[in-house]
Structures are given as C-alpha cells and as structure tokens.
Input
Amino acid sequence: MATLAKAISKNLFDNILPTFGNPRTNIPIWDNGQKMFICDEYDSGNGHRYYRGIRFCDRVVILEKVGLYHNWTYLDGIELYAFNEKKLELIQKRDYEKVFRKEEFVRSESESMVKDYLSGILKANRTAVPAEQLDKQVKELIDGCYKSFLSPDFNTRLLQIIPSIEQK
Output
C-alpha cells in the first residue's frame, strides 16, 4: 500500500495536470470521444493546430494525422502499422489533401487499407480466402481499434506501443 501512495504523489499529478504557468509533461492524452490517443500537438506559424491520433488493438496501430484549420478539421493522412516483435512496421499509408475528417471515412479507409494489405499477402502466398471471410476479419480487426482504452477488458500492448509512438 505504501508503494501505491508513493506512485500517486503530488509530483505525478503536477506533471500530468500542472498548476497554471508550469509546463505540462508531454504525454499522449486519451480522448474517449474519438477512441484514440492524442499526441504531438503543435501550432503552425499560420495559427493552425496539428496533432497525431493513435488507436490500436492487439495486431495493428492506426495513426491519423489531423489538422485544425480555422473551424474545420481535416485529415492529412492515415498510416497503418503492424507489430513486428517489439517494433512497429509501416504496412500502408495514405495522404489526403483538404479532406474533412469524419470517423466513418477514417474507419472505411482503414478497413480498405488492411484489406488491401492482407489481399496482397494472400496473393503472394497463393492462398485463397473467401471475400466474405476476409471482410469479416478486417471489420473485426478495425472494430478492435475503436474499443475504449478505459474499458476494463481492454487488451493492452501499451507498454510496447508508447515507446514506438514517441520515436516517430
């Protein structure tokens, strides 16, 4: 019990939620509404705000590059990563120009990217899988990325993912 009391100290909370005027430690922030971690926020010289949104499950990581211009939220790109032992490996990437960010669009693009990747691997291995089965597996995989991190049964690989995120 004493160890827990030391872990939850004033110092810990001051780093996460500092008093006004003190810098905050740069840690990813969980946004439960978007079901993703927000990191690398910055303002451009023109006053536009940018950030990366990261969501993941036990097999893939979806990284969104988002820009806030005046009153609009744009999607600048989506990157898909797969786990390769202890590091992440880029498997698909799409860049966008002036595309409004909508969750349905991001989800459908992510499904399409995973399906394209898996179809390519299956074709290279000369393996046939029914299209319905592939679609079902892809949908389940992407649905897993939209599960809340705050859910008690969330299967986390966070300790492996966060260091990889910070390297990018």
Q: What stands out?
A: Residues 103-124 form the longest helix (22 residues).
